Amino acid sequence: MNFWSPYPFVQITVAFSTGILLLQLFPLEVSNFSATVISITVIYLVLVIILKRLDLSHSNVISGTLSLLVISYLGFAYASKYSFETNPVSEDVVGYYGVVKSNTENSGKYQRVILDLDYYLLQDSLLPAEGKVLLYIVNDSSKRRGPQYGDYLVVQGRAKQIKPPSNPGEFNFASFWANKQVLWQDFVEPGQVRFIKNDPPNPIINLSFKVRNLSEQYLKTAVTGERELAIAMALILGVKDGLDNDIKSAYAASGAMHVLAVSGLHVGILYLFILYTFKPLRDKKYGALITGLFSLVVLWLYALITGFHRLSKERL
pTM for this structure? Predict the structure, then answer.
């Protein structure tokens, strides 16, 4: 414990993450998250007070270990809240209203977005709603505008809970999206979706998506050939919409699948290139400072171009 004492943030992060990972091994539902947090906190405080009164020689080690165990359990309970908690949709629901929280991705014959729910629509009233819907909209042959980040949409239909796998060893699509706090999905026609307004919840994320979309358009004009364009989009921007199964299989067989997704490898290569370029400057006065600042600016700009993160990243 003494070794980790100067690093409380690392202790908390590791303990909380351990609790989240334990849920993958032991998928148990925590029935009431708020009550669990209050109960565990009260029990922990009582135990700490008792340890202080007993004045044991290793009371600090014991209380510190208890606190990490509590944090681990809170991570477990928090992950369980988003993996199991579902609110049954009433039979009276005829639609729902929410805001698009992701960039639009083409998934076969569908456009796919994540919709953050605000209301369920009943015949004559609104019902407050929580949760996220993986919304699949059939690609429209017309040139009308597709969903964008920050769009508020009214959808006619009733979202259904994502089903777990039917066969042993099958990819758990439900668990994959539950880890992203998405528990529902719906397949609709373009006529079932009505645009209300565009009001992006986060202007920085909105800017990031716009920059990435512009980068996609530039690549489409600069790279000829469908397969070449699909690979370039995946390598540079992490956009895997155009990759077919043959390309994925070829990269998987060669053990190079990871290069088709923007990751730490891409950032590392970019950083090494910056260090190499600025090598003559680093021995000069303020050279290290200038190199560091330039690296931060370039890396954050690259993050902006790639959309910061893949909010609805697909499993390859």
Answer: 0.66
